[in-house]
Amino acid sequence: MLGQKNSHSEVKRGLKPLFPRLWRYCVSLTGSVDRADDLAQAVCLRAIERAEQFEVGTKLDRWVFTIAQRLWINELRKQAVRQGGGLAPIEEIEIPDSKAGPDSNLLAREVLLKVLALPEAQRVTVMLVYVEGYSYKEASNMLDIPIGTVMSRLSAARSKLARQLNDESDTG
Amino acid sequence: MSDHQTYSDEELTAYLDGESDTVVLADIEHALKQDSTLRARLEGLSLDKQKLKQAFELLLDAAPDAPDLEPAGELPVDRTVFGFLHLVAAAAVALMIGVGAGLLMTGDRAGDWRDNVAAYQALYANGTLAHIKQPEEAASAELARVSSAIGKDLDLSVINAPDQLDYKRAQILHFQGKPLIQLAFLSKVGEPVALCVIQLDDTANSKPVFQEMQGMQAASWAKDGYAYLLIGGDDPELIESAAEEYSKRI
After folding, report:
1. Do B93 and A111 touch (CB under 8 A)?
2. For chain B: N or C, fewer Cβ within 10 A?
3. Which parts of chain B have pLDDT scores under 50?
4. CB A87, CB A33: distance < 8 Å
5. Mean of the per-residue pLDDT values of chain A
6. Helix (H/G/I), strand (E/B), else coil: A144
7. Which of B16, B52, B87, B175 to substitute to test the interface with A, most A CBs within 10 Å?
């Protein structure tokens, strides 16, 4: 009982500070801000509902991101496909000006849009490994795919991004 | 290791990522020193991870506020916090994915859909909607697409009519296999309000009835085969006047 209580309080306490990263991960999963809002909320509720399954002392972010991935793949993506398009595209995300100034903000925005334009499987893997810093093994566990698939997704993403971003820096 | 060993793009990627569990970094390092073609291929996979991280920090700044996981003062007396959240979670997830979810979804009384909508609406906070700013054309197209799911063609000017409500977005949800649309608003004081509409087979026309649901003000009415629920916030006057307006104009 004590263990259950601890995992409940750890999940509840951890969800709030984790939420911006969870939402960001949901944007990369769903490819849409509106869907990310709905998914991130559903993930919080599911996490609280299943808090007793969380092992205190392990990484809460890894556990919550895995819930997001499963909820999206098993349940909400089907609904999103049924609903069709029409949700706010990524271009319409309101991105506040960064402290580094408008030029670097523009560049960062460009990089962000290029990554988000990758196919879902690639952008999610890029997000976990390059942005969140998980190892290949962790990403393979979270996405429930072999390590070889993590490698091929990352290499395909790297190849595409290197081409696009280098082309732009050559011409610009 | 032969000097002619070739490496796949996947292996080169693992090398660039320093994944020593996956590839032998020293072998690739050695091959790169000797093979200019391999170096060129490596170049074709280059990525500035620091820039990537900085780019994704923009999304952290754009993230909405975390949902309020413990709505203060709205707990039913006979339920624990977790019991309440379980109930709301089940209702919300079931509503979002459009499947039956055991006891919450049994029965086909018109009241059931309203209970589920109310539980879902209780999860909304100002931050759920505050960042949404759609150009009029996009909002109008979205409204047309969403309202067509229930066989209606709602006009943005009608939805925008009550000046106490700022229209944000429309979504299609499902209840027991039937499409249910949700139009979301923020009130002038920043409270989320929703107008939900579902088509019901045998609904007699009825004027708005006002009640409190999940700690929020709500009005429900029926007209020409459609049932309506306007819900959100704690200002009964706002809900009354907006419900009067919508029940006349839609």
Report:
1. no
2. N
3. 1-4, 71-87, 89-110
4. yes
5. 83
6. coil
7. B52
Pairing verdict, β B178-187 and B226-231 = unpaired
CA distance B19 to B13: 9
Classify residue B50 as exposed, middle or buried by CB count within 10 Å of its CB (0-12, 13-18, 19+). exposed
At residue A94 the predicted structure's pLDDT band, cuts being 50, 70 and 90, is low
Predicted pLDDT of residue A157:
97
**Which residues in chain B have Cβ-Cβ distances shorter than 8 Å to A109?**
55, 58
- Whether A136 sits inside 8 A of B172 (CB atoms) is no
Q: What is the tens place of the pLDDT at every residue in B59-69?
A: 998 888 888 77
Query: Which residue of chain A is at minimal alpha-carbon distance from B11?
Result: A151
Could you list the beta-strand ranges (E) of B160-247: 165-175, 178-187, 192-199, 206-213, 216-223, 226-231
Inter-residue contact A65 to A142 (CB < 8 Å): yes
pTM over 0.80: no
pLDDT at A156 over 90: yes
| DSSP string of B9-64, one letter each residue | HHHHHHHHTT-TTTS-HHHHHHHHHH-HHHHHHHHTT---HHHHHHHHHHHHHHPP
Interface probe with B: pick from A159, A160, A165, A170, most Cβ of B within 10 Å = A159
- How many other CB atoms are there within 10 angstroms of residue B19's CB atom? 20
Give the span between the Cα atoms of A73 and A137, in whole angstroms: 20
Rg, Å, chain B Cα set: 27
Least CB–CB distance from A151: residue in B14, B123, B146: B14
Give residue-wise pLDDT tens across range B84-115.
444 454 444 444 433 333 222 333 344 567 87
Q: How far apart are CA B158 and CA B69, in angstroms?
A: 34
- Other C-beta atoms closer than 10 Å to the C-beta of A115 total 25
